[in-house]
Amino acid sequence: MKRICIAMGCFVFWFSLKAQEQTTLEIKKPFKAITFDLLSPAYTSYSVYFSTGPSNLTRWRLGYRHQLNERWAIGADLGYGNNIIALRMEGDYYRLYELTPELQYLLQLGSRTQVYFSAQPFYLIHTETLYYDSVYVQGIGNVRFDSMDYKRTKYGLTVNYGFIFPLSSSMGFNVYVGGGIKRRENKYRSFVNPTLDEYLYYDHHSSYYDNDSPLTDFQFSFGMKAYFFLK
């Protein structure tokens, strides 16, 4: 995962150097754009959990960006995924809802490419039904089950560096990388045939999904989007 983060960072740095070589003004007026996330429909989770296999956490993410003046732009992305519209295999009754507002500060003016820093809070809800595995429940211990309804809530904030490169007067390409902080909270409900494991909690290897203890951690962000400029 560390190598992936470094590679993505180098990729964005290389594109930013290319962006600085562009001197022709392409976007003459503050832009308004519909955005489409190019990576989220094919997202793959690197966290392996539960014997039935992990969800890939894919979703379709659309957004809107509005440049207020020469320095500031605002916008938001809405994401939704389920096991019916997913491009990759997901778990049973998989649902994911996501809201990601963004405030951009534009750095490079009078050039073809718009370079920016941004603050991007996010809020995500992920639910699905899990089968024939175990989770650790606070105050109870390690519980095995035939099936269980799982809900994960994640929220936090990232600070990103990116650029918007116009491909034409009506379309552009956006790439960004950054990091921040996240908070994850798991909830388990509707256990079918739950049984309590006899071994102690400290023998249980806690992971991101199979423990309902709240977790605060680093959040890495990387994305690519298509921009469709509005007249």
TrEMBL record:
The lineage of its organism: Bacteria, Pseudomonadati, Bacteroidota, Flavobacteriia, Flavobacteriales. This is Outer membrane beta-barrel protein.
